Amino acid sequence: MHLLYKTRKGRIIVIWVFCARISCMVIVKSEFTLALNQVASERGISVDDVIASMESAILAAYYKEHGQSVINEDRDITVKIDTTTGETHIIENDEDITPPGFGRIAAQTARQVIVQKIREVEKKTIISHYLDQIGTLIRGRIIRQNVNNVYVDIGKTEAMLPRDEQIPNERLTVNERYTFLLKEIATNPAGYSRIILSRADEQFIVALFRREVPEIANDTVEIKRVAREPGERAKIAVYSSQSGVDPVGACVGQKGIRVQTVTDELNGAEKIDIIQWNEDAKAFLISALSPAEVVSVELNEEAKRAEVTVEESQAPLAIGKNGANVNLAANLTGYEIDIHQVKEKEVPKEKEV
What we know:
alpha+beta; five-stranded antiparallel sheet; disordered N terminus
């Protein structure tokens, strides 16, 4: 039984040959080394991992051939592969116990385990490749989708966009490419890892602005806080400690080109308010409720509540569609906000700030 590996040029390389006895599994040094390095290189895994997979495969074949009694006896049985020649032996207490007739079945079992082990190592290697990219943007092509999840080709592997990470009412098209936030790598109790993407997370907007605004990328402008209702509206509070730098203007861009680019990535449906962050809680809260004009603000610091007064004509703007504007302002500032309306004639001549 031969375990073969086909190179990119179509050439077949013998990794090793099972004879009637495993002790006969000897390969010319140059062939074995070439095959070993070829598999490791093209699979993107280490030579040690390939050897470990081979040893595990041979041991599994031995256990299968000799039944569970070997395992139940708790014997210390190992497999040794000569990395120079490829010669393989089964060892117990420094004694070669390679059985006679350990042939075709062992070879088939070993091959299956090796393929499985190499795939497992490949997956771990791919996952490791993406670990450093958590929190960054990644482009991907939609492969398929069902009621709950969208599956995305991100280059080296497939990732998943769960329903709660999707923008509500956004229609993603199969075979089209989109930008995502690589949110996390989730591992279940069985050890299976899955790359999770998002388009609904607040950090998705942060990453988009970091890409589009050089002043954010070089930390001249800082995004202090973000509040978002995906697909509807988002508010970001920005700040710069450098004099002469307008953080809001930097994010908006000339003729609004930067914020428009971010909005386009969200399919143009999500409105983004850019607000200057302020240490003064009242001033910050008034800005957070924009575009509504505020008459007065009364803060209860202990309860973290704000009583906000606006003219009747400004109340719809302050509250927003389905309460979006006031809810986002509350999330952005950390205060529960109560909106009170007054008629224009009741408005004080001087607005309280």
